[in-house]
Design a protein that fits this description.
With about 1250 residues, this protein is α/β, with parallel strands linked by helices. It contains 58 helices and 19 strands. The strands form six sheets. The chain has a five-stranded parallel sheet, with helices on both faces. Strands 2-1-6 form a three-stranded mixed sheet. It has a three-stranded antiparallel sheet with strand order 3-5-4. The protein starts with a strand and ends in an 11-residue tail after the last helix.
């Protein structure tokens, strides 16, 4: 067997023998790569075909395999440790070798499976083996992939070593690893900051600042951006000497370390569940994991362990936690996540990978985006749900873009404190990202029933249900392991462990706090030999003497009492602030000198009562904060909240919600009211309606407490009523309107506002008469005051009431008056809105030319004002007009412009609306597959943005088209049920009418004529009453068809005349192709085939290929011709009808095409007519009266249709009898059509020989059939 080979591929390509003498490398580039490939995959048997394709992908396999043989021969000249046969190559099982790459990977694998100390040793060995990139100078595809993978693992090793050495307080060693990392990633800001801190800790401030300057220059040269704000602040602190003296000071015992540094014990099942989720994530499948349990049970510790593993596996990690005061800040959770993980460099990378409109949509949550990306577009404000949809989509786009780079873990702790909008977004996000490698890990406390209900409600939107991990107390054995780990014991201490377990119930935090309390009291101490001891070790039986508390709060209070006064005061502010505060902020709150504050912070951090977060400090655990707040008197609490509010008010980054929280707890009611009102406006501006309502609820309570004037209370109620109207909370809205009425009795201006809103509310409930009374009074008040703006608002609402009650002419007159008032007011935007409303009403009246005039005027104003939202509405109305005028190419172009605009502004509702309308266009053009695809996209987009109205409309269109194409199935019925239920919930009579009409269409397709007529009539009457004439014309087509199927042509004529009148009102008085075709069927049923044929020809002239009804128009024309005896001509139209139908179905899968032809009666009839034609042929036979004995001319032949096969043929047993049956039919058909067949004609038709035909003729004559052929006379 070959000698022991030593192979070095990291940083160089070197081969050595067992004496470490260099060997000559194999001759040839591919031979060297083949040797390396086989060595690093030494545990695998390689297929020759796979190796050939890997190394020579551009060659034919035979050539590639020949090259492979040559490369293998050359590699063997260097080292003969291979095994090979005709199909495989591998490293021989008995071959001996050492390879640095294999050893490097093996060390990493082993490091994942052992404890921290052994892991560090293996990681250091791995780092020493990594002497540079894998196979430098070689650039095969597989080499590049392996090179990048190994580099990423190398960097992960360095990061782990760096973090560990910092945690252990070994800063000089940490600096070595940090510098090594920087050599690989000089632009990595977090590592640069670590190096700066480490230099500062070593007292070398000059080198720390030099490191900052080096980074600044590199960022400017390489990507043209400055260092992040966090890096700049650190440099400033180092310059002024205010950085902490230690990152994680070494402690005297493990239990005195922060909890995250303790080993994870007793959570094997939970960890196994998380590992399953991580494995799924690494394979490209996302998941959601929910961790619940009481405070201090170990949720955060489990998340910390997961975060450590994510870093080790080089997974992307986004982590944050909510805080109690954060409930009042909309999207606070996501704002913190974005701020924490998006730097200038990161956002520049994102800008290259995603549409900038979505980054621009995030600027409300992350204002720094505009500073980092000054070219981001300025997006128009979107009101109501439209703005919320855009923001949600923007956040999902960021996550999806990150997931394209690799698996992403989003870890969120303390979810019980999250605001309503952040929770709602979690549920919605999952539906957008579930097919991507994104893992959400959510942890929350379950003691608060209200918080638990909120979380459960929002997590219910996640499907499939999340993986659940519920943490309880540790078992006795696990608690013992935790105690031994905390004390650094190598052997059990059974009695001590049992006493602590009995006192704490196995609660992890309680156990650790008990040890800390015993240590602080001097009861737990190290003896002279360094062993942990208590005063009762020699005398106790069960350590009953230990003064243990049964409540963790009591333990915490004892620890707090032992703090210095300065530390106690800072801890109190930390507990009340409930956010991370910087050292300077604590200094301003306490009034203490910087040195005193720094010492107190160090004391609190070392004791685990505070934790550091990016140069700021916050409470170490919720339970600590609760214990601190418990000991403060109400007066102390109010005074400190007031100081916190005053201090935060000077910080530009402080939100109104935070100020409102502290002012309210300080009982500064007027300041609290002001800030709650600001917070409500801010929340409403980003469509965070739930949070806005919470703030306004508090405002109204405070207004009552302060006995504010009626006008002020009216304005607060009006602000809340506006939101309630937007989100459809009608009962609460009515209560607020009633209260508003009481506060405006002596204020005409506000009473006018109330009356307009009351009228709008009444109209939403179809109480039109009451609504008109209210708006009439509002209009009178406005005119009495000469308030043109109020008059115009009242007129617009009145016009809408009239429109909804189907009084379109009166609505038009009211809008014309509103237009006059708008022109007097002279405000362009108000004028544009009025033109837009006029356009909508005129479209409903079918006065398209007038509507276009107003649409163009509105569009011009919107474009001049750059009011893109109004511009989309105008383009949409213009496209609707073009569609109803049958100018479909113009409609397509207008929708294209609108779609471009919607996407540029992140207007998802507008995008969904366009998808729906373009689907309608494709349907009108006879392109059902494209139409269905657009309907599907529209349904999904409306569902994405939670627009049930939009989803209902899109599902109705989808159901209508599917019914016409494939008949009625469960999917169709589900769509109709959804739309009908929605219509019933919101009293939407138009959607209800469409649902009823669609049920009628289903009955029509099933041939249930009377039920079809009943449903279609019911739907059309509702549509007619609502002024929806265009929709009504569609139902009338099917009502006419029902009448024709029931042999009631006069009734069909009535429906068609009614439809013609409606079309005339809509400005399209000329009959269309389907109307002419149906009129032809009316005359056909009455027996007037001449008139029927004339009208049918006109219908054909108007029906272009691709028209929705083109195939039926051709088919009906063929039926008329057939009844007139023009069979041959009729058959050509049957063929045309089938070809047109097939063209509509061509883009669908074969099984759907077959289903359509089988299930839909119209399609079945067209196919059957075509199949009948396909079972027959037209032949040229000699006229029966043509004499024999002379040559035949063309005039002697006539066309004859022969039925070659018929279903009855299959009933006859035996090939011969069946053939003679067919022969007899052919002879009879020839005779009936005045022709005489020759033997050769019959033989060709039946596909047999002349002799067979002659024998069959003889049999038929012998059987008594008087058969004649041209040759037999």
């Amino acid at each position: 067997m070959a000698f022991i080979l030593h192979a070095h591929f990291l940083g160089e390509y070197r081969l050595q023998d067992e004496h470490h003498q260099d060997l000559q490398l194999p001759a040839g580039h591919h031979a060297r790569l083949l040797l390396a490939y086989l060595l690093i995959h030494s545990t695998q048997v390689q297929q020759r075909s796979r190796l050939a394709a890997t190394f020579w992908p551009d060659l034919p396999e035979s050539d590639a395999r020949r090259r492979l043989n040559q490369a293998l021969w050359r590699a063997r000249q260097c080292w003969d440790g291979f095994f090979s046969d005709r199909e495989t190559i591998a490293i021989h099982p008995q071959a001996s070798f050492w390879c640095d790459t294999v050893a490097f990977r093996r060390a990493l694998q082993q490091a994942e499976q052992i404890g921290e100390q052994g892991r560090l040793t293996l990681l250091q060995q791995a780092v020493e083996m990594y002497r540079g990139p894998f196979l430098p100078g070689y650039y095969a595809d597989w080499v590049l992939v392996e090179r990048e993978y190994l580099r990423e693992r190398y960097l992960a090793c360095l990061e782990t070593l760096l973090e560990t050495k910092i945690r252990q307080g070994m800063y000089e060693e940490a600096l070595i690893w940090a510098q090594q990392l920087l050599r690989e990633e000089p632009l990595n800001e977090p590592i640069n900051r670590q190096v700066m801190r480490l230099y500062a800790l070593a007292g070398d401030r000059e080198r720390a600042l030099m490191q900052y300057e080096t980074l600044r220059q590199l960022l400017a040269q390489e990507i043209g951006v400055p260092p992040s704000r966090e890096t700049q602040e650190l440099a400033s602190q180092i310059m002024h000497g205010t950085t902490p003296r230690a990152l994680h000071p070494p402690q005297t015992a493990p239990f005195l370390e922060p909890e995250a540094f303790m080993p994870l014990v007793g959570r094997e099942d939970a960890w196994h569940t998380l590992q399953q989720a991580v494995t799924s994530l690494q394979s490209g499948r996302g998941t959601v994991v929910v961790i619940s349990g009481e405070a201090g049970i170990g949720k955060s510790r489990l998340l910390a362990e997961l975060a450590s593993q994510a870093r080790w596996l080089k997974l992307q990690l986004w982590q944050t936690g909510a805080y109690e005061g954060g409930r009042e800040t909309p999207y606070g959770l996501w704002a913190v996540l974005l701020r924490s993980h998006l730097s200038a460099l990161e956002t520049h990378e994102l800008a290259l990978q995603m549409d900038p409109v979505w980054l621009a949509a995030l600027t409300d949550l992350l204002p720094d985006l505009r500073k980092w990306l000054p070219d981001l577009p300025l997006l128009p404000k979107l009101s109501g749900d439209e703005g919320r949809h855009r923001l949600h989509r923007a956040i999902s786009k960021v996550l999806l873009t990150l997931a394209q780079r690799g698996p992403l873990v989003v870890s969120i702790d303390d979810l019980q404190w999250a605001d309503a909008e952040s929770l709602q977004l979690l549920g919605e996000l999952w539906s957008l990202v579930e097919q991507r490698p994104i893992m959400f890990v959510l942890a929350f406390r379950e003691e608060d029933p209200a918080a638990l209900r909120r979380i459960t409600f929002h997590l219910a939107a996640i499907a499939p249900p999340p993986l659940q991990i519920r943490l309880g107390s540790l078992t006795r054995e696990a608690a013992g392991r935790l105690i031994r780990s905390a004390l650094g014991l190598s052997r059990p201490a059974p009695r001590f462990e049992a006493r602590l377990y009995h006192a704490t119930g196995g609660h992890p935090l309680f156990i650790l706090e008990t040890l800390r309390a015993l240590y602080a009291q001097g009861i737990l101490f190290r003896d002279a030999a360094g062993h942990w001891s208590t005063p009762w070790d020699e005398s106790t039986e069960n350590y009953r003497e230990l003064p243990l508390s049964e409540r963790v709060h009591e333990l915490l209070l004892r620890r707090l009492a032992a703090l210095t006064p300065a530390a106690q005061e800072i801890l109190q502010y930390a507990a009340l602030a409930d956010r991370a505060l910087k050292m300077d902020q604590y200094r301003r709150l306490t009034g203490q000198a910087s040195q005193v504050v720094m010492a107190a912070l160090r004391e609190l951090e070392q004791s685990g009562l505070l934790r550091e977060e990016d140069e700021a400090y916050r409470i170490g655990h919720d339970l600590i904060g609760e214990a601190v707040r418990e000991v403060l008197s109400p007066e102390e609490s109010r005074e400190r909240h007031g100081r916190i509010a005053a201090m935060l008010a000077q910080d530009a980054d402080t939100t109104p919600a935070e100020l409102a929280h502290h002012y309210q707890l300080a009982e500064a009611w007027e300041e609290a009211l002001t800030q709650h009102e600001r917070a409500a406006r801010q929340a409403q501006s980003i469509s965070a309606f739930a949070t806005a309502l919470e703030h306004l609820d508090t405002c109204i309570q405070l207004a009552d407490r302060l006995s504010l004037p009626e006008a002020r209370r009216f304005d607060l109620l009006a602000a809340r009523e506006n939101i309630l109207d937007t989100i459809g909370e009608r009962q609460a809205q009515e209560r607020d309107l009633t209260a508003m009425a009481a506060f405006c009795r002596h204020d005409p201006q506000r009473r006018g506002v109330y009356l307009c809103r009351w009228a709008r509310y009444l109209a939403n409930h179809s109480r039109y008469a009451e609504a008109e009374e209210a708006i009439a009074e509002a209009l009178q008040l406005a005119r009495e005051r000469g308030d043109l703006r109020a008059e115009q608002s009242a007129l617009l609402i009145w016009a809408r009431v009239l429109n909804w009650s189907a009084r379109l002419e009166e609505s038009l007159q009211t809008l014309q008056r509103a237009l006059e008032v708008s022109q007097q007011v002279g405000e362009p935007l108000l004028l544009a809105h009025t033109h837009r409303e006029l356009t909508d009403t005129l479209v409903g009246l079918g006065r398209h030319n007038e509507a276009l005039i107003h649409a163009n005027q509105a569009l011009a104003i919107y474009r001049e004002l750059e009011e893109h939202r109004g511009e989309t509405d105008c383009l949409n109305l213009q496209a609707v007009i073009a569609t109803e005028q049958n100018d479909l190419s113009r409609a397509h172009e207008l929708y294209r412009q609108e779609l471009e605009l919607c996407r540029a502004m992140g207007f998802l509702y507008g995008e969904a609306r366009i998808l729906l309308n373009v689907g309608n266009l494709y349907n009108l053009q006879g392109k059902p597959c494209q139409a269905l695809q657009h309907y599907e996209e529209a349904v999904n987009t409306f569902r994405l943005i939670r627009s049930r109205r939009g989803e209902a409309l899109a599902r109705l269109n989808r159901a209508s088209l599917r019914t016409g194409l494939f008949g009625v199935d469960n999917a169709v019925l589900e769509d109709i049920d959804f739309a009908y239920e929605y219509a019933a919930e919101v009293s939407d009579r138009i959607t209800r009418a469409q649902s009823i009409g669609l049920l009628g269409l289903g009955h029509f397709v099933r041939g249930e004529w009377e039920e079809a007529r009943r449903k279609l009539s019911e739907g059309s009457k509702i549509l007619l009453a609502a002024g929806q004439h265009w929709m009504c014309t569609q139902d009338l087509i099917y009502l006419a068809r029902v009448a024709l199927e029931l042999e009631q042509p006069d009734q069909a004529a009535d429906y068609l005349e009614q439809r013609a009148r409606l079309r005339e009102e809509l400005g399209v008085g000329e009959p269309d192709a389907i109307a002419l075709a149906l009129w032809s069927q009316v005359h056909r049923k009455k027996g007037d085939l001449g008139k029927a044929l004339e009208l049918s020809r006109q219908a054909l002239d108007l029906s272009t290929n691709g028209h929705e009804w083109d195939y039926l128009i051709a088919f009906w024309h063929g039926e008329i011709l057939q009844e007139r005896g023009e069979a041959a001509t009729a058959e050509s139209f049957f063929v045309q009808a089938f070809d047109l139908l097939r063209a509509k179905l061509v883009d669908f899968p074969e099984e759907l095409r077959e289903l359509s032809l089988r299930r839909v009666p119209d399609h079945r009839r067209v196919a059957e007519a075509y199949e009948r034609r396909m079972n027959s042929v037209v032949v040229r036979l000699v006229r029966r009266e043509t004499p024999t004995g002379r040559p035949l001319s063309d005039d002697d032949f006539i066309p004859v249709r022969w039925t070659i096969s018929h279903p009855d043929d299959e009933r006859i047993r035996g090939k011969g009898p069946r053939r003679r049956h067919r022969l007899l039919r052919l002879l009879n058909e020839a005779a009936e059509q005045g022709a005489a067949a020759r033997v050769i004609d019959l033989a060709q038709a039946l596909g047999v020989s002349d002799k067979t035909i002659k024998r069959d003729l003889a049999v038929l004559r012998a059987s008594g059939h008087a058969v004649e052929t041209r040759g037999s006379r």
